[in-house]
Amino acid sequence: MITLKNHINKTIVIASALTMVFSCKNNFEDVKKIGISENAPIGIAENMNLKYTDSARVTANLRSPKMLDYSNRDFPFSEFPNTVEMDLFDEDNKKSTITADYAIVYDKTGLIDMQGNVVLASSENDTLFAEQLYYDQNRQWLFTNTSVTFKRKADILNGKGFDSDVKFTKAQVLEIDGSVSVDE
Predict the structure, then answer these.
(1) Is the same domain home to 40 and 54?
(2) Pairing of the two strands 57-70 and 77-80
(3) In this predicted model, what pLDDT tens digit does every residue of 84-141 receive, in sequence order?
(4) What is the phi/psi pair of residue 31, to 5°?
(5) 127 and 120 in contact (C-beta within 8 Å)?
């Protein structure tokens, strides 16, 4: 009788221990997320001066008073909510500058989306005005499908889009809806 009770007690202890072992799960990732909202940035930086390089050559320099880092997302990005200024350098190290009220840099695609009062001043004194402009870092290509005004030498072109390489040798205003030539 005593051995039967011991056997029953051992069985209960073993069953309880096994239940506890198998009911535990590895939730370390969940624990790390405690206190972090999925909508909040994982980091905030002030007075950013970010340089992009390719083969030891600076291709772009992005400056902003504030950056919000959302690299904790499935589709990571960095947000620049308080203005942004970006210099683009071509192979000859000629600089063009873009300013905007707001920008987002998408890490996986290499795309920079600049919005609000976008002004692009090229090294050749060409100027583009738009409400939105994209820069594809991988292809070193600028484009938009919003209304633009493009000033080149004595010509002012208005249109519904823009495409260009960073050298502006292939600059093109799309769907031109007006042009003016100014005598110099």
Answers:
(1) yes
(2) antiparallel
(3) 999 988 888 889 999 999 999 998 998 999 999 999 998 888 999 999 999 998 888 9
(4) -65, -40
(5) yes
Are 6 and 51 within one domain? no
pTM score above 0.70: yes
What is the Cβ-side half-sphere exposure of residue 17, based on CA atoms within 13 angstroms?
6
User: Looking at the structure, do residues 98 and 135 belong to the same domain, yes or no?
Assistant: yes
Of 20-24, 110-114, 174-178, highest mean pLDDT: 110-114
Q: Which residue has the tokens 């633009």?
A: 148
- Same structural domain for residues 98 and 169? yes
Helix count and strand count (H, E) for the chain: 2, 14
Cβ 114 vs Cβ 67: under 8 Å? no
Only one residue has tokens 């947000």, namely 79
Which domain range does residue 17 map to? 2-31
**Whole-angstrom Cα distance, residue 58 to residue 154?**
31
